[in-house]
Amino acid sequence: MIPPDHPRYRSLVVRERLAQCAREGVVALEGLTAHGRAEAFDYLIGEQSTPTGRQAARIAAALLRQARRPVLSVNGNTAALAAAECAELQEATGCGIEVNLFHRTDERMRKITRLLEDAGATVLQGTPERLIPLEHDRALCLPHGIGRADLVLVPLEDGDRCEALRAMGRVVVTIDLNPLSRTARTATLTVVDELTRALPLITAAYGELAPDEVERLVRELDNHYLLQAAIAEIVRGVTSALD
Ligand code: ATP
Q: CB-based contacts of 94: which residues, under 8 Å, 6+ apart?
Protein backbone atom coordinates (compact mmCIF):
# COMPACT_ATOMS: atom_id res chain seq x y z
CA MET A 1 0.00 0.00 0.00
CA ILE A 2 1.53 3.30 -1.10
CA PRO A 3 0.83 6.16 1.36
CA PRO A 4 -1.01 8.98 -0.47
CA ASP A 5 1.26 11.60 1.12
CA HIS A 6 4.37 10.00 -0.40
CA PRO A 7 6.10 12.70 -2.49
CA ARG A 8 6.18 10.37 -5.50
CA TYR A 9 2.73 8.90 -4.89
CA ARG A 10 1.42 9.18 -8.44
CA SER A 11 4.55 7.79 -10.02
CA LEU A 12 4.55 4.83 -7.61
CA VAL A 13 0.87 4.11 -8.23
CA VAL A 14 1.49 4.10 -11.97
CA ARG A 15 4.46 1.75 -11.56
CA GLU A 16 2.36 -0.59 -9.46
CA ARG A 17 -0.41 -0.50 -12.06
CA LEU A 18 2.02 -1.36 -14.87
CA ALA A 19 3.66 -4.14 -12.85
CA GLN A 20 0.21 -5.62 -12.14
CA CYS A 21 -0.72 -5.37 -15.83
CA ALA A 22 2.58 -7.07 -16.70
CA ARG A 23 1.77 -9.92 -14.33
CA GLU A 24 -1.64 -10.22 -16.00
CA GLY A 25 -0.06 -10.33 -19.47
CA VAL A 26 -1.47 -7.00 -20.69
CA VAL A 27 1.86 -5.15 -20.60
CA ALA A 28 4.96 -6.76 -22.11
CA LEU A 29 8.05 -6.80 -19.88
CA GLU A 30 9.72 -4.64 -22.51
CA GLY A 31 6.91 -2.13 -21.95
CA LEU A 32 8.14 -1.61 -18.41
CA THR A 33 11.52 -0.46 -19.63
CA ALA A 34 9.87 1.85 -22.17
CA HIS A 35 7.93 3.36 -19.27
CA GLY A 36 11.15 3.90 -17.34
CA ARG A 37 12.61 5.88 -20.20
CA ALA A 38 9.47 7.99 -20.35
CA GLU A 39 9.54 8.61 -16.59
CA ALA A 40 13.01 10.06 -16.90
CA PHE A 41 11.87 12.51 -19.58
CA ASP A 42 8.77 13.39 -17.55
CA TYR A 43 11.01 14.24 -14.61
CA LEU A 44 12.93 16.62 -16.85
CA ILE A 45 9.80 18.56 -17.81
CA GLY A 46 8.58 18.78 -14.20
CA GLU A 47 5.88 16.09 -14.62
CA GLN A 48 3.41 18.57 -16.07
CA SER A 49 2.27 19.56 -19.54
CA THR A 50 4.51 22.24 -20.98
CA PRO A 51 3.33 25.12 -23.20
CA THR A 52 4.75 23.28 -26.22
CA GLY A 53 3.02 20.04 -25.23
CA ARG A 54 -0.28 21.91 -24.88
CA GLN A 55 0.19 23.60 -28.24
CA ALA A 56 0.97 20.24 -29.89
CA ALA A 57 -2.17 18.74 -28.32
CA ARG A 58 -4.24 21.51 -29.94
CA ILE A 59 -2.64 20.82 -33.30
CA ALA A 60 -3.34 17.09 -32.83
CA ALA A 61 -6.99 17.96 -32.26
CA ALA A 62 -6.99 20.09 -35.40
CA LEU A 63 -5.55 17.22 -37.46
CA LEU A 64 -8.20 14.92 -36.01
CA ARG A 65 -10.91 17.40 -36.97
CA GLN A 66 -9.69 17.34 -40.58
CA ALA A 67 -9.26 13.55 -40.75
CA ARG A 68 -11.97 11.47 -42.37
CA ARG A 69 -10.95 8.03 -41.07
CA PRO A 70 -8.81 8.54 -37.93
CA VAL A 71 -7.73 5.49 -35.94
CA LEU A 72 -6.16 5.36 -32.48
CA SER A 73 -3.64 2.52 -32.33
CA VAL A 74 -3.40 1.03 -28.85
CA ASN A 75 -0.62 -1.10 -27.34
CA GLY A 76 -0.35 -2.74 -23.92
CA ASN A 77 1.11 0.26 -22.08
CA THR A 78 -1.49 2.60 -23.54
CA ALA A 79 -4.36 0.33 -22.51
CA ALA A 80 -2.92 -0.20 -19.02
CA LEU A 81 -2.40 3.50 -18.38
CA ALA A 82 -5.16 5.21 -20.29
CA ALA A 83 -8.05 2.94 -21.32
CA ALA A 84 -10.62 5.47 -20.04
CA GLU A 85 -8.86 8.38 -21.77
CA CYS A 86 -8.86 6.40 -25.04
CA ALA A 87 -12.60 5.78 -24.69
CA GLU A 88 -13.22 9.48 -24.01
CA LEU A 89 -11.20 10.50 -27.06
CA GLN A 90 -13.23 8.07 -29.13
CA GLU A 91 -16.50 9.42 -27.79
CA ALA A 92 -15.49 12.99 -28.61
CA THR A 93 -13.94 12.40 -32.02
CA GLY A 94 -15.56 9.22 -33.33
CA CYS A 95 -12.12 7.75 -34.11
CA GLY A 96 -11.67 4.03 -34.56
CA ILE A 97 -9.64 2.14 -31.95
CA GLU A 98 -7.46 -0.76 -33.03
CA VAL A 99 -5.14 -2.89 -30.89
CA ASN A 100 -1.72 -3.23 -32.46
CA LEU A 101 1.09 -5.06 -30.66
CA PHE A 102 4.76 -5.76 -31.19
CA HIS A 103 4.58 -8.79 -28.87
CA ARG A 104 1.34 -10.07 -30.35
CA THR A 105 -0.52 -13.14 -29.12
CA ASP A 106 -4.23 -13.86 -29.37
CA GLU A 107 -4.43 -13.88 -25.59
CA ARG A 108 -2.84 -10.42 -25.21
CA MET A 109 -5.06 -9.07 -27.98
CA ARG A 110 -8.12 -10.36 -26.12
CA LYS A 111 -7.03 -9.01 -22.73
CA ILE A 112 -6.22 -5.55 -24.07
CA THR A 113 -9.45 -5.43 -26.03
CA ARG A 114 -11.40 -6.34 -22.90
CA LEU A 115 -9.63 -3.66 -20.86
CA LEU A 116 -10.57 -1.03 -23.45
CA GLU A 117 -14.15 -2.27 -23.71
CA ASP A 118 -14.55 -2.26 -19.92
CA ALA A 119 -13.56 1.40 -20.04
CA GLY A 120 -16.31 2.10 -22.59
CA ALA A 121 -14.38 1.94 -25.87
CA THR A 122 -15.53 0.22 -29.04
CA VAL A 123 -12.63 -1.76 -30.45
CA LEU A 124 -12.30 -2.64 -34.13
CA GLN A 125 -12.36 -6.39 -34.74
CA GLY A 126 -11.67 -8.59 -37.73
CA THR A 127 -9.00 -10.56 -39.51
CA PRO A 128 -5.70 -8.68 -39.64
CA GLU A 129 -3.49 -8.61 -42.71
CA ARG A 130 0.17 -7.72 -43.18
CA LEU A 131 -0.56 -4.31 -44.65
CA ILE A 132 2.40 -2.38 -43.21
CA PRO A 133 5.79 -3.23 -44.76
CA LEU A 134 7.48 -4.50 -41.58
CA GLU A 135 9.00 -7.85 -40.65
CA HIS A 136 7.50 -8.03 -37.17
CA ASP A 137 3.88 -8.39 -36.08
CA ARG A 138 3.18 -4.67 -35.94
CA ALA A 139 2.76 -5.12 -39.71
CA LEU A 140 -0.58 -6.76 -38.94
CA CYS A 141 -3.56 -4.44 -39.06
CA LEU A 142 -7.20 -4.43 -40.03
CA PRO A 143 -8.09 -3.50 -43.64
CA HIS A 144 -11.05 -1.47 -42.34
CA GLY A 145 -9.00 0.09 -39.51
CA ILE A 146 -5.40 1.26 -39.70
CA GLY A 147 -5.34 -0.27 -43.22
CA ARG A 148 -7.60 2.50 -44.56
CA ALA A 149 -7.00 5.25 -41.98
CA ASP A 150 -5.91 8.65 -43.21
CA LEU A 151 -4.65 9.59 -39.74
CA VAL A 152 -3.17 7.21 -37.19
CA LEU A 153 -2.74 8.37 -33.61
CA VAL A 154 -0.05 6.13 -32.16
CA PRO A 155 0.94 6.86 -28.58
CA LEU A 156 4.19 5.29 -27.36
CA GLU A 157 5.16 4.13 -30.82
CA ASP A 158 8.37 2.51 -32.05
CA GLY A 159 10.27 4.27 -34.78
CA ASP A 160 9.98 1.53 -37.41
CA ARG A 161 6.23 1.52 -37.68
CA CYS A 162 5.99 5.27 -37.54
CA GLU A 163 8.39 5.48 -40.47
CA ALA A 164 6.49 2.79 -42.39
CA LEU A 165 3.13 4.52 -41.84
CA ARG A 166 4.59 7.84 -42.98
CA ALA A 167 6.00 6.15 -46.08
CA MET A 168 2.46 4.87 -46.77
CA GLY A 169 1.31 8.49 -46.82
CA ARG A 170 -0.51 8.48 -43.50
CA VAL A 171 -0.71 11.41 -41.16
CA VAL A 172 0.93 10.07 -38.00
CA VAL A 173 0.36 11.76 -34.64
CA THR A 174 2.33 10.40 -31.73
CA ILE A 175 2.50 11.08 -28.01
CA ASP A 176 6.04 10.58 -26.78
CA LEU A 177 7.84 12.12 -23.83
CA ASN A 178 11.16 11.62 -25.60
CA PRO A 179 11.56 14.38 -28.20
CA LEU A 180 14.71 12.66 -29.47
CA SER A 181 13.17 9.28 -30.32
CA ARG A 182 13.01 8.17 -33.93
CA THR A 183 9.24 8.18 -33.65
CA ALA A 184 9.18 11.76 -32.38
CA ARG A 185 11.36 12.86 -35.29
CA THR A 186 9.50 10.88 -37.96
CA ALA A 187 5.88 11.58 -37.06
CA THR A 188 3.82 14.27 -38.73
CA LEU A 189 3.22 15.64 -35.24
CA THR A 190 4.65 14.71 -31.86
CA VAL A 191 2.94 15.67 -28.64
CA VAL A 192 5.80 15.69 -26.12
CA ASP A 193 3.79 15.00 -23.01
CA GLU A 194 2.78 12.16 -20.76
CA LEU A 195 0.05 9.96 -22.23
CA THR A 196 -2.58 10.38 -19.51
CA ARG A 197 -2.17 14.17 -19.60
CA ALA A 198 -1.98 14.47 -23.40
CA LEU A 199 -5.07 12.45 -24.35
CA PRO A 200 -7.50 14.60 -22.29
CA LEU A 201 -5.88 17.76 -23.67
CA ILE A 202 -6.50 16.52 -27.22
CA THR A 203 -10.07 15.51 -26.37
CA ALA A 204 -10.83 18.89 -24.82
CA ALA A 205 -9.25 20.85 -27.67
CA TYR A 206 -11.21 18.83 -30.25
CA GLY A 207 -14.45 20.32 -28.99
CA GLU A 208 -13.10 23.83 -28.54
CA LEU A 209 -11.47 24.65 -31.86
CA ALA A 210 -13.18 27.04 -34.24
CA PRO A 211 -12.96 26.06 -37.95
CA ASP A 212 -10.53 28.87 -38.81
CA GLU A 213 -8.22 27.84 -35.96
CA VAL A 214 -8.29 24.25 -37.23
CA GLU A 215 -7.14 25.45 -40.63
CA ARG A 216 -4.47 27.74 -39.24
CA LEU A 217 -3.01 25.13 -36.87
CA VAL A 218 -2.76 22.54 -39.64
CA ARG A 219 -1.33 25.05 -42.12
CA GLU A 220 1.36 26.21 -39.70
CA LEU A 221 2.27 22.75 -38.36
CA ASP A 222 6.06 22.43 -38.03
CA ASN A 223 7.06 19.35 -36.03
CA HIS A 224 10.76 20.13 -36.18
CA TYR A 225 10.11 23.50 -34.56
CA LEU A 226 7.90 21.91 -31.88
CA LEU A 227 10.57 19.32 -31.05
CA GLN A 228 13.21 22.03 -30.75
CA ALA A 229 10.88 23.97 -28.46
CA ALA A 230 10.28 20.84 -26.37
CA ILE A 231 14.04 20.28 -26.05
CA ALA A 232 14.52 23.94 -25.08
CA GLU A 233 11.90 23.49 -22.33
CA ILE A 234 13.82 20.48 -21.00
CA VAL A 235 17.10 22.41 -21.03
CA ARG A 236 15.52 25.40 -19.27
CA GLY A 237 13.98 23.10 -16.64
CA VAL A 238 17.25 21.30 -16.01
CA THR A 239 19.41 24.41 -15.84
CA SER A 240 17.04 26.14 -13.41
CA ALA A 241 16.44 23.03 -11.25
CA LEU A 242 19.01 23.85 -8.59
CA ASP A 243 18.62 27.66 -8.65
P1 ATP B 1 12.18 4.93 -31.22
O2 ATP B 1 12.21 3.58 -31.88
O3 ATP B 1 11.10 5.81 -31.75
O4 ATP B 1 13.52 5.63 -31.09
P5 ATP B 1 11.99 3.77 -28.60
O6 ATP B 1 12.92 2.70 -28.95
O7 ATP B 1 12.28 4.61 -27.40
O8 ATP B 1 11.66 4.76 -29.75
P9 ATP B 1 9.87 2.27 -27.45
O10 ATP B 1 10.81 1.58 -26.54
O11 ATP B 1 8.90 1.48 -28.20
O12 ATP B 1 10.55 3.17 -28.51
O13 ATP B 1 9.15 3.35 -26.50
C14 ATP B 1 8.15 4.11 -26.91
C15 ATP B 1 8.31 5.55 -26.53
O16 ATP B 1 7.20 5.86 -25.71
C17 ATP B 1 9.56 5.97 -25.72
O18 ATP B 1 10.18 7.03 -26.40
C19 ATP B 1 9.01 6.47 -24.38
O20 ATP B 1 9.65 7.67 -23.97
C21 ATP B 1 7.57 6.78 -24.72
N22 ATP B 1 6.64 6.58 -23.60
C23 ATP B 1 6.49 5.47 -22.82
N24 ATP B 1 5.54 5.67 -21.90
C25 ATP B 1 5.05 6.92 -22.08
C26 ATP B 1 4.02 7.69 -21.48
N27 ATP B 1 3.30 7.22 -20.45
N28 ATP B 1 3.77 8.93 -21.97
C29 ATP B 1 4.46 9.42 -23.02
N30 ATP B 1 5.46 8.75 -23.63
C31 ATP B 1 5.76 7.51 -23.18
A: none
Q: Does the beta carbon of 99 lie inside 6 Å of ligand 1?
A: no
Separation CA 58–CA 46 (nearest Å): 20
Does residue 4 lie within any of the structural domains? no
Model confidence at 1: pLDDT above 90:
no
The tens digit of pLDDT for each residue in 187-214 reads 999 999 999 999 999 999 999 999 999 9
The overall average pLDDT reported for the chain is 95
The CB-based long-range contact list for 112-115 (8 Å cut-off, 24+ gap) reads 112/26, 112/74, 112/75, 112/76, 112/79, 115/26, 115/79, 115/80, 115/83
Residue 237 pLDDT grade (very low, low, confident, very high; cuts 50, 70, 90): confident
The closest-lying atom of ligand 1 relative to the alpha carbon of residue 38 is: 20
In a domain, 11, yes or no: no
Residue 242 has pLDDT above 90, yes or no: no
Give the C-alpha separation, 39 to 33, whole Å.
Answer: 10
Q: Which residue's C-alpha comes closest to atom 9 of ligand 1?
A: 158
Ligand 1 and 75: CB distance under 6 A: no
* Residue 8 in domain: no
29 part of a folded domain: no
Looking at the structure of the chain, the number of domains it has is 1
Q: Any idea what the CATH number is for the domain that residue 102 is in?
A: 3.40.50.12640
- Domain enclosing residue 119, as ranges: 51-242
Mutate to test the pocket of ligand 1, among 136, 177, 190, 191 (most ligand atoms within 8 A of CB): 177
Please tell me the predicted confidence (pLDDT) of residue 219.
98
What is residue 153's predicted lDDT score, i.e. its pLDDT? 97
